[in-house]
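Example record used in the benchmark description.
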Amino acid sequence: MITSKQNKKLKELNKIIDQKCSDNSLYALEGFTIFEEAIRENVEIVDVYVSESAENEFRSRYNQLYTTVKDDILRSLSKTKTGKDIIFVVKKPSKINIKEINDELVLLLDFLQDPGNLGTIIRTADAFGIKNILTVNNCVNVYNEKVLRSTMGSIFRVNVTSIELDDLRSLIERGYKLISTSPNGEKIAKFKFKTILALGNEANGISEEVFRESFKRVKIPMKGKTESLNVAIAAGISIYIMTEE
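Model output (structure tokens):
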């Protein structure tokens, strides 16, 4: 059992949690609920750390190698207020080949900065069967612990890939049409062509360089006095409209 914060494995775990580890192929998650989700999705689990008080429960439920850690030490590594009884490390999925994307609807996130927004959008995309989200212009790191927590396990089912503008142009050349959200756009609707739906930065919206590649600009019509919606809420409404049967 690990009883010291100075333990070498725990120091390495802390670096993985903060995404400061030399091995960039790993990330960490917390909690039994998301651990079970990882098992169901056959995610490659590399290491498991269980609190001393939760060890018996873990052994009775899972056939998985683990390391026991003193309760207060493991919970001190947790990013949640109450702390968690399990932290586990998994392998990041291989980066997808942009040329292999062939979905009817793909999301493009332009310079999104709030981890909660990104996590919520990933979860929403999963709920509507969207498999690919592309990010451009230095969006928040998808492996930020707040992003991961907000996805509630959807991170295992949705590919989130950072791309360059040239990658976006290559998708457009293959027949995709870029639809960008804008307060000056036309009413959003379901389209009959392969679509990349772009959503922009929380404060400034979509960048001019992405707008220049757009086939059409769209907006969500609103009846009240609010001028704009949170980007995650706008994403949910837009996806619903564009995938409605």
